[in-house]
Every structure is written in C-alpha cells, then in structure tokens.
Amino acid sequence: MELLMAILIGVLFMVGTYLILTRRLLRIVLGTLLLSHGAHLLLMTTAGLKRGAPPLLGEEAAAYADPLPQALILTSIVISFGVTSFILVLAYRTYKQLGTDDMEQLRRQEDE
Amino acid sequence: MSWLHLIVLAPFLATVFIPVIHKAFPKLHIGWAVLPLPIALLISLLSQIGKVSSHVSVEASMPWIPSYGIYFDVYLDGLSMLFALLITGIGTLVVLYSIYYLDKHKERLQAFYVYLLLFMGAMLGVVLSDNLMLLYMFWETTSLASFLLIAYWTQREKSRYGAQKSMLITVFGGMAMFAGFILLYVMGGTFSIRGLVEQAPHIAGDPLFIPALVLVLLGAFTKSAQFPFHIWLPDAMEAPTPVSAYLHSATMVKAGLYLVARMTPIFAGQAEWFWLVAGFGLFTLLWGSFSAVKQTDLKSILAFSTVSQLGLIMSLLGVGSLAVLYDAADERLFYAAVLAAVFHLFNHATFKGALFMVAGIVDHETGTRDIRKLGGLMSLMPITFTIAVVGGLSMAGLPPFNGFLSKEMFFTGMLKVLEADVFALETWGILFPIIAVVASVFTFVYSLMLVMRTFLGKLQPEKLEKKPHEAPIGMLIPPIVLASLVLLVGFYPNLIAHSLLEPAVSAILPNLLAPGDHFETHISFWHGWTAELFMTMGVVAVGLLLVLTLRRWVSLYDHLPQRLTLNRLYDGMLLGLQRGSSKGTEAYMSGSLRTYLIYIFLFFILVIGGSLAFIQPTLQASGYAPLAAYEWLLGLILAGAAAAIVLVSSRMSAILAAGAVGYMVSLYFVILRAPDLALTQLVVETVSVALFLLCFYHLPKLRRDMNRVRFQSVNFLIAIGVGAIITILTLAVQGVRPFDSISDYFIANAHDEAGGDNVVNVILVDFRGFDTMLEILVLGIAAIGIYALIKLRLGGDYREHQ
Fold first, then answer.
1. What percent of chain B shows pLDDT beyond 70?
2. Is the CB of residue A94 less than 8 Å away from at least one CB of chain B?
3. What does the pLDDT look like over B34-87, one tens digit per residue?
4. Beta-ladder partners of B705
C-alpha cells in the first residue's frame, strides 16, 4: 500500500507543479490545491498505514491508528482551505479589475 | 576622563553649540565663536611640549567596550604631538582665514563650522588614539567630514562628484585597514598599538603578517593619495579653499603618513614593507610632480603637488624603515631618512597651507584660478605675492627656506640607499636618487610656474571677473603666519629639531633606543660641499632651463594618451559596475512568476535530489501494509482525475476533475482509518468546488474556454523531477523509525486525562489546543480578507470590467 501511496503522492506533486508553472490563474490555484492534497497524503503515509482501528477509544481495539498526524492534517486542511478560498477570490478580483487571468500579462506595467 | 580625552572630545562637544549660537546671534559671523576653541587646544598642547620633548609621554585610559578590548585610550608622544600641533595650529589659521573667505550672508556657515570641527576632533582622535578600533572610528569620521566639506556647495555637480569619489576611495581603503587591524588583533591579542609594538618580533613570523601589512598599507595609501589612489585629491579641490588648505594639504592627507609612521615599529624590517612604502612613495612623487606641470588651475597644481610631496614623505618613511636593520650597529645611517620625513611633513604643512591660502586669495580677488587668465598681479597684491614667493621657493627646495633643508635631507636619505645591500637594493638602489632628482626638477618647474604665471607677466583685466586688489588683512594674517614659519624654520631649524622632531623620530623608531637614550639632531644650513648640494644645484640649473623653455615643450603633454588615464579607468569601473549589476539583475529578475517558480523548483530538485543521491537510502521492498484491489482502483481514478485537470480544455471540466481528486482523497482517508479527516475533506472539497465554480464559471464570456494547456517540455521535466523526488523521499522514510511515536501517550490518556474517546478531537482541542485556536484565527483572517477584497474599492481609478 505504501508503494501505491508514494506513487500517488508523486503524481499529485507532479501535476500540481506542472499546473503552477502554467499561465492561467485558475490552473495555478488548482495546482496549489493538488499540492496540498499531496502533502496531506504524505503526512498520512509517512506516519504508517493501517496499524489498527480508527483512533476512537470506544472501539476497544488492541491497536489504533496514529491520531497525531490526523490532527495535524485536519489543521492543515482547514488552513489550506482558508488560503485557497482567499487566493480564489483574489484571482477573481484580479480578473475583474484587469480583465485577464494570464500571468504573463499581469506584470508590473511600466507606465503605472 | 582626563585632559587628553577632553582635547579629543572638545571639538565634538562644540559642534552641538554652533547652531545654538548661530540662532542666538544671527549677526555674528559664527567663525568668531569657533576661533577660541582651536587656540585653546593649541595652547594646552603647547603646555605639554616640555614633557614630550624630554621623552615623557602623556597617556590616559577610559573603558569604552572593555569586553571586546576596546578602550578609549589616548596617548601623546613625539609623533602625536607633531600632528596634534599641526592640526590645532593650522586649524586656528584656517578658521581665521575662513571668516574672511566665506560670506556670512550667502553661505550656510553653521554647517561649514560643524563639519570643520567634526573633522578637527576626528583628526585629533586619529593621532592621539592608542587603540586600533578607536583609531579606525576616528579615521572614518575624517572621511565623512571630508565628504561633507568637499560637497559643501551641494548645488554644484562637480562638488558632488568629487565628494563621492573621495568617499568611495578613502572608505575602500578604510575598510581594508579595518581588516588589517583585525588581523593584527588576531596575531597580537590586543588592540593597543603599544601592546602590538611590544609583540612585534613575535608577530613577524605569523602567516597573517603579510596580509595585515598589505591591508594596513592600503588604508594609508588611499588616505594619503598615493598612486594609483591619488585621483580623488584633485577632484576634492571643489571644496572651499580653507578646506583644501586644511584637509587636503596639511592634515587629513597626512593621516596615511601618520599611520605608516605609527606602524613602522611593528612592520619595519620586512622587505615587503620597505618596497611597498618606498616604491609607491617614489612613484607617486614622480607621477605627481610630472602631472602638476600640465595643470592650468591653481588648485589643481597644488593638488598634484600635494600628491607628489606626500609621495616624497612616504618614500622617506620607507627608506627610514631600513634603520631597523642597520642602525642597531650604532651607525645610524637611515634614521636620517625618518628625520627628513618628519621634518618635511612639518615644512610641507606650512608652505602648502600658505600656498592654498594664496590661491584662495587670488580666486577671491580676481574671480578665477585659471593661470592662463592670470598674470601681473605682483604690483596689485604685493603681500600675497611675497607669501607666494616664500611658499613657492620653499616648495621648490631653494635656500633659505625650510623646503631647502628638508630636500637636502631627502637627497641624503636617497643616497644612503646606495649603501644598503638588502632587499635587492644593490641592483635597484641606484633608481632612488635618480627618481628623486628627476622629480625635484619637475617640482622646481611647477613651483616657479605657479608663482610666475600668477604674479609676473602682463595683467589681463579683460579676462578677470573682478577688479583685482589686495585682500583684507584678516585674510592675509594666516598665510603671513605660515610664511613666517617657513622662514623661521628655514633660518633656525634647530628651534623645532629638539623640541618636536627628535621626540617624533624616537616615537617612530623606539626599538633602536636604549632606555633613556634619545636621538641627537642637528640640522645645519651649510654642511659642506656634499653630493646633496651638487644635486640641488643640478636641479636648479635644469629646472631653470625648463622653466624658460616651458612654452616649447609643455605641449608635449597633449601627445600623452588621453584614453589611458586613471580617472577614465575609475569612471569606467564605476559605470561598468552599475551597468553590469543592473544587467545581472534584469537577467534573472524577469518579472514572470513562472521563472521564479522554476528557480525554486530547480533548487528543490538539486538540493533534495542531490542529498538523496549522496545519502543513497535503501528503499524497502517488503513489509508494506496489504493492498486491496479497490485501493488500486481508487488510485487509478485519483491519478486519472489529476491528469485530466491538465488535459481537458474547458474550465468547467478542470474544476470538476479537481473535485474528483478531492473526493478520492477523502475516500483514502476512510481507508486509512481517519473518519474525521474524511468528513472534513468531503465538506471542504464541496465548498471549494462551489467556490471555484462561483468565481470562474460564472465569469463573463471573456475566454470562457480555457484552451488546452500548451505542452511545455521544461515545465514537464521539472514536474516529473519534483514528483519523482517526492515519491523516492516517501519510500525512503518508510521503515526508518529512530524512536517511538508520542501517540501512545495520547491514546493512553485521552479518556482519563481529557475525558474524551475521540483521540483526534481530544488532541485538537485539549492536548494541542493552541494549534486549533490559531487555525481559527487563520480562517477568520481569510474571511475578513475576502470580505475586504470584495467590498473595498480604493483609489477609484481602476478599470472595471463588469
């Protein structure tokens, strides 16, 4: 399972990187989204996979999955959601104000 | 805090009061309020001269930063006394001169005197400091004060250019000197100069010795305008003339000489020291005198003359350093060179100060300093003319003026080199007297040219801006005093020989003296038919011939290559540096986000990939968690959806594919036993997709279809690299568990300590509640930020596309 996860994480990072390097704002925001998915799965995988029951004590299991990375990922999901939505609205405003979502056209203009 | 500390600090304290006095007495020329200070300093220094000339030094200590060995240590011996007297004495005269030179209605006088006092205090600090760090601090303050004074007329472009040039060059040297001082500290373990002198034999064998020597000399050479760093001095002539007279002839440019003399006990006896000091000195002497002849501006002639005379003194100090090798056998051959250096240093300050003041008077009374426009002023300005003749002939080295005496001693010193047989001098030594004579001929030519073309010949009233007449008496007193000193020392040299020069020489060559012993000097006017006298006669004969035929050969200077001057080199270097760095910046700061991201990702690939290749981790082949078929399937869907984001052409499909990736991730969270994560991920993904659609799908028609992403191989390769490295990294850390997880504690105590069974939630709100609090803050900030982005419209001149 770790091998599959490692490959999936690699794919997520690869596509995210590729998207970030493109010119359209929307694709760049999607790229950051994929990168955060990749990071979350990476956290999960490196902590060890399937080593017991979900960390709910009512389960009365002999072993539980590691709860700490889950707490970290939960925090991270919320933060990346906040950041993503902010970037999205920022991109939206940029698009509205400047009439383009092409990064190459968003350079500082000399006459301003 | 002692008397000697006060001498250094008094000028700095006085700067505070100048603006106050200026405000209180607006009608008073503020120079009159400044004048008592240098007089008082001069008198209090003179009161110590008895002590110093009987070889008792005055010293005082005050802690400043004791933990770093930096003390405010001041020390007055023969060398410091000579310099301190020059600084305060000529300072007094210059202040008096400036009162008449600068107009109180047109000039910003308070600024002028603040800068001048700043300089005076800094210069006193340089010559009285015993601590190297203190010396460096005052050294840079003189550079700063000189910068401010050169650019005194800030509205003139040439002033600003000259100030910048002198600042860059002297601060460059100052920094080098600072590094040299630190090396000395590393070797000797102390910043105290006297402490270092005591350790001189131990230091000389250190591998850092030569770097320290070169760095300290760089500082001395830039400050004292030695070739090739002399180029700042002629441009510094844009300063008001009192400044040129004070800083750029008598005091600041001698700080480098002071440093060389002060460091002689530490560095002397080394071939590098001898060749660098004597060699650069001699070349500067020749180059300065050669260049002075072609100048047409009075102050430019004097500037190059200063360069040349500083080279003369420097070369004498270099030759004098041989004394450490030879004079121990009580022959005292080379100590005469040090005496000549000290003597000429004093003489130069007197006659050059007078000549600058003469140039200022001529400028002030005629409106020009161009010798092509001047002439015939002798009968109109008889007093000025007399001073100029005294100063000019002393500079040329003619009897009965003091310049004659020191020039004879200079020749003696250069001839003595022939007797030395160290440092390859048996082959090269003959160059010393030859260069000395040639440079003296040029010196003779420009000195006479200066006097003759200004005061003799025909008056050209139509070319002058003002009707020339004699200067006011207050402006004449300072140069008269200096010219009298020239004559007085010329006739009675022993007047200063015992009281000033002997202690100074003892300070430069302390190791040659047995305790209680001191040098006996006797400077005589007539010392028989010696080789030196014949050399002087030859100089006068050839010089007179050249002066009389000046018009025929001076045009030869025009044939010199104009493109190869040092000023061009300096300007070119500055421009090249500016252009090169702006080109360099433009080359990599492209302004495109993609370029910067490529730098970041490339750096990531190189560093992480490089270190992975270096460590070569063993990738585990077995021991992985079991893998079910549906997990495979989910993985395929996830990868496919991710790839689809890139491949699809419409915006809508891309957003939906991104949503599919998110839902797959939450399914994985289910598989991986993380119910809370799965819940959150589902909700967040749903809201995110909705937001994406809100923002991008419902936009105006403008480019609704996104176009396919054009394939770019660079991007693709970088993406592959990043993905591969992350994959390898993930696999590399598998099975590496250097210690147990802390989570056992959370699982064991969640119920008993925190009263909850959902361990993840207990961690979030109890064990690690701070994270959650700040994460809430992040959400809040994002919400406020989004609100502000949508609502706030500042400026109002944005183009709205709605």
1. 93
2. no
3. 899 999 999 999 988 888 877 778 888 889 998 988 899 998 888 999 999 999
4. B650
pLDDT given at position A8: 94
Q: Any CB–CB contact under 8 A between A61 and chain B? A: no
- Model pLDDT, residue B601: 95
Q: Which two tokens stand for residue B568?
A: 């061009």
The predicted structure's pLDDT at residue B800: 46
Average pLDDT over residues B642-671: 90
- For chain B, percent of residues with pLDDT exceeding 90: 40
Interface test with B, best of A25, A30, A42, A43 (most B CBs within 10 A): A30
Residues of A in contact with B665 (CB under 8 A): 37, 40-41
pTM: 0.83
First to last CA, chain B: 75
CA of A51 to nearest chain B CA: how many angstroms apart? 8
Our CA-based measurement puts residue A36 at a distance from the nearest CA of chain B, in whole angstroms, of: 10
Contact of B615 with chain A, judged by CB distance below 8 Å, is answered with no
| Chain B residues within an 8 Å CB radius of A23 | 594
Q: Do B684 and A96 touch (CB under 8 A)?
A: no
User: In a 10 Å sphere around its CB, with 0-12 CB exposed, 13-18 middle and 19+ buried, how is residue B31 labelled?
Assistant: buried
Q: Give the other-Cβ count within 10 Å of B599's Cβ.
A: 11
Give strand pairing partners of B58.
Answer: B76
- The per-residue DSSP string of B9-77 comes to HHHHHHHHHHHHHHHH-TTS-HHHHHTHHHHHHHHHHHTTHHHHHTT--EEE--EEEGGGTEE--EEE-
| Residues of chain A neighbouring B654 (CB-CB closer than 8 A) | 26-27, 30
Residue type at position B642 = A
- Interface pTM (ipTM) of the complex? 0.94
